[in-house]
UniProtKB/TrEMBL annotation:
MF terms in GO: L-allo-threonine aldolase activity
Presence of keyword Lyase: yes
Alphabetical list of NCBIfam families matching this protein: GntG_guanitoxin, PRK10534.1
Protein name: L-allo-threonine aldolase, PLP-dependent
Subunit-structure text: Homotetramer.
Domain Aromatic amino acid beta-eliminating lyase/threonine aldolase: 5-284
Sequence similarity: Belongs to the threonine aldolase family.
A GO cellular component annotation in the UniProt record: cytosol
Known cofactor(s): pyridoxal 5'-phosphate
Species this protein is from: Pseudomonas marincola
EC number: 4.1.2.5
Length: 334
């Protein structure tokens, strides 16, 4: 019985083609700037997203941290959504390591932050206040795709108010595939973008931060400072390059599987939030622990939460979705 792990799209195993690409990658010492595979990954992704430079880092958390620290000085603040990864799920790193104050704001149902709310939160130039310096958005946000018109408004707004605009694009490619646009149509609105290779793209490790030459120069110094300067990292970057070439278009399969899962659960009477990309949120109330145990017996790994998140990815097939729906059905009728 193959195990179906729906906790996250981080759980994927490198595909055979990806492993071959990793084995074959030419390598050098990346701290000296001499790893050809890392250099190629950085240039490829930066070019694709419309930026002058890129920086390969071990994790999305580090990528966002370096982005925030490269934009903000000590005593500056960034404006961010209450549920955003850069605020809630990164150990408070911007504040702890960067001395950057977060200004979290309530978010709208579509994953955006109302720009009138952002405007009201921007602090006047007054020594009582931290200096408002940056707006950080996330796309996809809990599986939701931010509307392109909103991104254009946010870009214009930040220009008017002297804020930089950063995107936590951990799942940028899920957004671009869903919209059927080039990723540049999204990233063109931002001053910097962080992309995860280790989520739906299926690489074992790695993120890339993209921005201008001086911005990435600053981030490169900070990467060394926080211990993220890796040596023959091309063995990992090769997985990212392979993913960009072979595992982007297939994200639409994950989206279709998520929709099929949602449809099946709705048919069973569950309350399921509308699906946009590869995440299904279902209300399981106080049944979370029992459901998790029931599914575990059938080789299906779930998180346990009343608002249960299930994530599809390249190790979840169509047949797997049928098995999951059957497991929910047998739980319901038990
Ligand atoms: C996973 C994730 C990150 C951080 O990635 P890690 O590689 O796990 O540190 C950042 N932002 C979002 C939205 C994520 O989902």
């Amino acid at each position: 019985m193959t195990v179906i792990d729906l906790r996250s799209d981080t759980v994927t195993q490198p595909t055979a083609g990806m492993r071959d690409a990793m084995m074959a990658a030419p390598l050098g010492d990346d701290v000296y700037g001499e790893d050809p595979t890392v250099n190629l990954l950085e240039a490829t992704l930066a070019g694709q997203l419309g930026f002058a430079a890129g920086l390969f880092v071990p994790t999305g958390t580090m990528s966002n941290l370096l982005g925030l620290m490269a934009h903000c000085e000590r005593g500056d603040e960034y404006i961010v959504g209450q549920q955003a990864h850069t605020y809630k799920y990164e150990g408070g790193g911007a504040a702890v390591l960067g001395s950057i104050q977060p200004q979290p704001l309530e978010m709208e149902a579509d994953g955006s932050i109302d720009l009138a709310r952002v405007c009201a939160a921007i602090k006047q130039d007054d020594f009582h206040f931290a200096r408002s310096r940056l707006l950080a958005l996330e796309n996809t946000m809990q599986g939701k795709v931010l509307p392109l018109a909103y991104l254009a408004s946010a870009h214009e707004f930040c220009g008017l108010h002297g804020l930089a605009l950063h995107l936590d694009g951990a799942r940028l490619f899920n957004a671009s595939v869903k919209l059927g646009v080039a990723p540049r149509a999204i990233t063109g609105h931002f001053d910097s973008v962080s992309v995860c290779l280790s989520k739906g793209l299926g690489a074992p490790v790695g993120s890339v931060l993209c921005g201008s030459e001086p911005f990435i120069g600053k981030a490169r110094r900070l990467r060394k400072m926080v211990g993220g300067g890796m040596r023959q990292a091309g063995v990992l970057a090769a997985a990212g390059l392979y993913a960009l070439e072979h595992q982007v278009a297939r994200l639409s399969e994950d989206h279709a599987n998520a929709q099929a899962l949602a449809d099946g659960l709705i048919e069973l009477g569950y309350s399921v939030e509308p699906v946009q990309t590869n995440m299904v949120y279902v209300d399981v109330g106080d049944q979370a622990a029992a459901l998790k145990a029931h599914c575990a017996e059938q080789g299906i790994i779930l998180s346990a939460a009343a608002r249960l998140r299930m994530v599809t990815h390249l190790d979840v097939s169509c047949d797997a979705i049928t098995r999951v729906i059957e497991a929910f059905a047998s739980f319901r009728s038990a």
